[in-house]
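Hi L., both proteins are below.
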Amino acid sequence: MEHAKQSSSIASPTEPLLAIKLIPSVVIILLSIIAWQFTPPLGLSLPAYHTAIIFIATIAAIVANVLPTGAVAIISVSVYAVLHAGGETSAKAAIMAATSNFNNVLIWLIVIAFMIARAFAKTGLGRRIALVLLRYFGQSSLRIAYCLGVADFLIAPATPSNTARSAIVSPIADSLAKTINKDDSKLGKYLISSVSAMNDASAVGFQTGFAGNLALVGIAASVANINMTFTHWAMYLLIPALALLITIPFILYKFINPETKQTPEAPEFARAELK
C-alpha cells in the first residue's frame, strides 16, 4: 500500500507535462481538420491547398515540440500519402509522391551533414579544437574571443546547425568567464556576445554552415535553374564572413570593455580540460 502511494506520488508530476504536450497536438489536428473542409482560396488548386495544410501543421508541430522532429516528419509523410493530399488517384501514386524527394541529393547532403555535426558533439572533436587554440593563443580576453571564433569557423563547414556549434563553443566561453574572474560580469558578457556573433558569421560563410543555406541552394536550382556549388558560395560569402571574424570581436571588446584583459588562466584551463 505504501509502495503504491509512493508510485502514484512519483507519477503525478508527469501528468501536467503530458497535458502540455497533448493540448498543442489536439489544437493542431482540430484546426487542420477544420481547414481541410473549406474550399481553396482563389487561384489555389485543391491538391496545393491540402498540401499547404499538412505542411503548416507539420511546422506547427515541430515548433510546439509535440514529438521529436523525425517522428513528426514520418507522421506527416504518412498522412500526406494516406489522404492523397497531392491529388493522386491510386495508393501507389500517393506513396511515390510522398517519398519522391527522398532521392534528392540535397536532402541527403543535409542528413549527412547533421550526422557529422552530431559526431562533432558526441566525440568532443569540436570542443578539442577550441581548447587546443586556447591552450596556445588564449593569453588575453581578446585572444580568447578570436580563438573561439576561429574554432566555430573551423567546424562550421561540417556543422549545418547554429545550435550544434553553439552547444560546443558557448559552454567553453561560459566556463572560462567563471574560471578567470567570476566577479567580472563584463567578461562573460563579452565572450558570450562574441561567440554568438561568430556563430552567425560562420553560418553565412559556408554553404553547409546552416541548413537554411542548403534549402536556399535547392530553391535556386529548382526555381531559377541556378546551380551553386560549395566553392561558388564561399567565393561570394566567405570573405564578408571572415571580415566579420576579424572585426566583430575587436569592436565588442572596445564596446563592452571587460575589466579582465590578461587571462593566463585560459591556457591552464585548456590544458586541464584536454587531459
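That was the first. Here is the second:
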Amino acid sequence: MAQDKIPVQVNGRELTLTNLAKVLYPEDGFTKGEVLDYYQRVSAVLLPHIAGRPMTIKRYPEGVDGQSFFQKHATPHRPDWVRTEDVKSHSSRARDPGATITYLVIDDLPTLIWAANLAALELHVPMWRFPRSAGAEPVPDLMVFDLDPGAPATVVECCRVAEALRPRLEAAGLAPLAKTSGGKGLQLYAPISGLTAEQASEQALSFAQGLEAEHPGLVVSRMTRTLREGKVLIDWSQNNGSKTTIAPYSLRARTHPTVSTPVTWDEVAACREPGDLFFTAADALARIAQRGDLFSPLLTG
C-alpha cells in the first residue's frame, strides 16, 4: 500500500511512520495511527515523567493479541538523534550479570513517536533518573507501591488498601498520589530524596509489613501467589533500582487501549466498582483537558 510508509517531520526531526492502519487493539479497532496520535496528544504531560529515565519498552508488532517482547537494549537501527545511556546491569536475574545495557531515553516528542512507531505500546521506567556516575548505585526520586489484587479482589480492594496506607505514608512525611495501573491494580507514588534504592525498598517493605499486620485479611506483603487470593499484594520491590513500573499516561496492552491514569484521592475513596477507575486513551485525554496533570506535584522536587 502506498500509505504504508509516510515521511513526517516532528519538531524538526525526520521520521518515517509505517502501517498506520494496522489494528493493534482488535476489540476496539484501535489502530497504530491512533496509538501514535494518543502519544502525540499526551506527550506534554507524559514526557516530564519519563525524561531522563532509562526506558524499557514492551512492543506488540502484531497487536495486543500477538506475540510481544520487552526491550531493554535500544535497537541499533535508530536515528542518531535518539538519546541512549549505558548502564551496567546489577540484576541477579540477568542472563549476563554485569553486562552493559544501552538504554533508550525518551526526552522529547520525536523520540516518543519513533518508539511508538515500533509498536511500543507500553513504557516502563524505574524510580530514578540520569545523570548517574559510572558504577554508582541509582538514586531514586520516587517511592512506589504497586497494589496488585489477587482474584476475586479487584481495584476496589486496592482502593481500600491505598486509603489505609496513605495516612501511614503521610505520617512519615511522604505525599502519596495514586494512579491506576491500566490493568487491575492501583499504584501510589511519593517524591523522595536522600535515599538509595535499597533504602527506599526497605522503607517500602516496612510500610507494607505494617499494613499487613494491621489488615491480615486484606493485605499481603509477600510475593507467594498462594497467599494472594482475595487479598491485595503491596509490591514494595518495584523500588529496586533494576526494576521498572508502567509510566504515568502509558498505554497498556489489554483488550482495550487502557491507560495508567492518575486519579484523585476523592476518586479513590469513591471507587465501588472496577469500572469506576477504568480509563481508555480517550478518557485519559479528556481528563487531562479538564484537570491537567494530576501527577505534576511529583515533578517539583
